[in-house]
Design a protein that fits this description.
Elements: H1 2-25, H2 58-66, E1 70-75, E2 80-85, E3 91-101, E4 107-117, E5 121-127, H3 129-132, E6 139-146, E7 152-160, E8 178-187, E9 190-198, E10 205-214, E11 217-218, E12 223-224, E13 229-231, E14 236-244, E15 254-258, E16 265-268
Antiparallel strand pairs: 1-2, 2-5, 3-4, 3-6, 6-7, 8-9, 9-14, 10-11, 10-13, 10-15, 12-14, 15-16
Helix pairs in contact: 1-2
């Protein structure tokens, strides 16, 4: 049942990301996007950004990422990597990186480009078609965007295959992550923790799901800054979880980390 749900979350993620990235690609030609369906009318695993229990899922996180102010994305129509600037001011000195990894973690290509963008604009920066051409296996396309000071402002991961047969995803070798609690704080009526999740493995850690758990049940509501993300070899992600303090009374929550090919682990909280 868990494997089936993971596959549906992959579909959910791609669907909602595609809606908003397609609009971003035509930023100067579209007036916006309106969603008529946000949640499931009955327990379901697709076509929703939060589930029957009001918990955000993969659709929410991929939609959130696609709508960030300055965003890097892959355009399926022409296999280009583009940067979308939704802000009302220009941005200069951006550095875009497109890395390709195979199923076993071998680096297939690493392309870098720089760009300046006008306010409310979209620009293609890397023609990825040639980089992907002729590759028969699954390619993880990992995109990163840094500002002029070297700060990471956008990340994105795609799984691509020439014939759209993604059965080999089942054959991914496991990756074991490292998790550190970098901060813990209480503010107002909430308690929060900052985490750094790292992938020391030599392969991509795919579709990582962090959860706040109590007695093998996910604490609801718990609000994560990121979820269902992927990490390249030696990559890391900073994320934050926040929960109403009253829910923690008399309880000892733990962090659970799982993923498509991630060895499950639990971490006690300070």
């Amino acid at each position: 049942m868990e494997e089936f749900s993971d596959k549906m979350q992959l579909m959910n993620a791609e669907g909602y990301r595609g809606i908003f990235e397609a609009a971003g690609h035509k930023l100067s030609e579209t007036g916006g996007v309106m969603l008529w369906k946000l949640n499931a009318a009955f327990p379901s695993v697709i076509w929703q950004i939060y589930d029957w229990y009001l918990q955000p899922n993969a659709g929410y996180y991929f939609m959130k990422n696609a709508c960030e102010p300055v965003h890097i994305q892959f355009n399926y129509n022409d296999s280009s990597v583009a940067i979308i600037n939704r802000t009302y001011h220009s941005v200069e000195g951006l550095k875009a990186t497109a890395m390709g990894y195979d199923l076993h973690g071998e680096l297939l290509f690493n392309e870098i480009a720089t760009a300046d963008l006008d306010a409310e604009s979209a620009r293609k920066v890397i023609p990825a078609g040639e980089l992907l051409s002729g590759r028969k296996g699954i390619v993880f396309l990992i995109l990163q965007l840094d500002d002029h000071q070297g700060n990471r402002i956008s990340e994105n991961v795609y799984w691509l295959k020439d014939d759209d047969d993604f059965t080999p995803l089942k054959l991914m070798e496991p990756a074991r992550l490292e998790v550190q609690i970098s901060a813990s704080s209480a503010m107002g009526t909430d308690r929060s923790w900052d985490l750094r999740i790292s992938n020391p493995a030599s392969r991509v850690a795919f579709f990582i799901r962090p959860q706040l758990m109590v007695d093998d049940e996910e604490m609801q509501p718990s609000f994560w800054s990121s979820g269902y993300f992927s990490l390249p070899p030696k990559g890391s992600m900073e994320c934050k979880v926040r929960v109403p303090s009253y829910l923690l009374e008399g309880k000892d929550p733990v962090i659970r980390i799982s993923g498509w090919n991630v060895e499950g682990m639990r971490l006690d909280l300070p």
